[in-house]
Amino acid sequence: MMFLAVAYAHAAGAANDYGSLLKLAQDWRGFEQPVMSNCTPDYSVAAMAAKGATLPTYRARLHELDTRGWPAAQIVDYRLIEAEMNGLDFDLTVRQPWARDPSFYATVFGERSDVPQHEGVTAAPAIDLFAFQFPLSRADQRNLTCLLGAVPALLEQAKVNLRKSNARDLWVYGAGTLRNQTEVLAKLQAGTLDMRTLEGSKHANLAGADRALLIALERAHKATDAFISWIE
Hints:
Elements: H1 8-11, H2 18-32, E1 36-37, E2 40-41, H3 45-63, H4 72-95, H5 97-100, E3 108-109, E4 127-128, H6 138-149, H7 151-161, H8 168-190, E5 193-197, E6 200-204, H9 211-231
Parallel strand pairs: 3-4
Antiparallel strand pairs: 1-2, 5-6
Helix pairs in contact: 2-3, 2-4, 3-4, 6-9, 7-9, 8-9
């Protein structure tokens, strides 16, 4: 956000209750993310129902704020958080990509998109290989091992979450999206992955990587192939 990055100490002396908006924004950004366990997000029916049940609490906190006299910049922040809440409500009640769209579960990306985030909605956390520095540090190896290690569990969860979906066009498109993921994983395994970034091309090299990372990569690749077969 443009303005919510302002330090709380500066905001405290601003218009009434702006500090409360900053606190709400921090809480909200945590809430809107899926519940995580071992790098695996939970998009189950129960988890999404829980978000839907709790969303009104955050809306109530927002609407309780007295914005009279706030400058335009602070009103923009208020409207931004309000729009994000409306967006989550729309996802929960209408779009429901976790329950309709197989491509939602394509989370491995080998190049930066030409839009600020990814084209289309995707499960969190996205595995942006282009954001890593190669060769990987020990910390990055552990992080990537956890992220890739979660792919099989996420795709198994997807089979349950998508069982009532009848959006054929999304399934046809989703197969292609997942084929792109398996291609990226195969190239990463083979050491032939060159990634497009804002700074130019970046080569992904796993030479010297821990065995745990290589195993996680192999399992993610196999799980993606199996999911493609399931989609088709």
